[in-house]
């Protein structure tokens, strides 16, 4: 079984105030300063240590890509959300993972936040099959398409455009904080679900492109996935 997943976060302002020089700043000013002092990229997006989780969505699929079950969570109690994703992952002993930049953000985030809340992660997440960068059991689309960093990293949205499928119709990552401030937690989970379906669709196309699944199975799964993606996008 594979777990296709995505996590939505906002800055952990309480923690950020402990590590920068101006802890009395308001949140927007604090975010600007944190981006300058803590970010390691030109976008100013903070590293995973400085985020807290507000939603996640996962889609269980069989090894051949057939979808089995959607699970998800949104809320204020991050510890509860972490426990729920860990409980879901413990459903299967030898699961694999599919994600977009999960190695760079989502998986480190889970480790940091489990550490913060004193939770124990599923042992599988620390297994060689998951931690080995070239593992077939931990599929990061960024690595798959960039040949493990030999080429540039593709955005999920751009991969969608490449195969003429519109992604990111219900929100963008930088909008999550604004949605959170507007108390739109269910909408954040809905946006997260679209990302997961987008990741799944791109993974399907990749599996077909490299010859891992035949055309009949691909056409069937892709038609079902596109119907679900359209349903998600039309029910904001």
Automatic annotation (TrEMBL):
Pfam families: DNA_pol_B_exo2
SUPFAM superfamilies, per database record: Ribonuclease H-like (SSF53098)
Domain Predicted 3'-5' exonuclease PolB-like residue range list: 44-232
UniProt-recorded Gene Ontology molecular function terms: nucleic acid binding
Signal peptide: none
Protein name per the record: Predicted 3'-5' exonuclease PolB-like domain-containing protein
Species assigned in the record: Fodinibius salinus
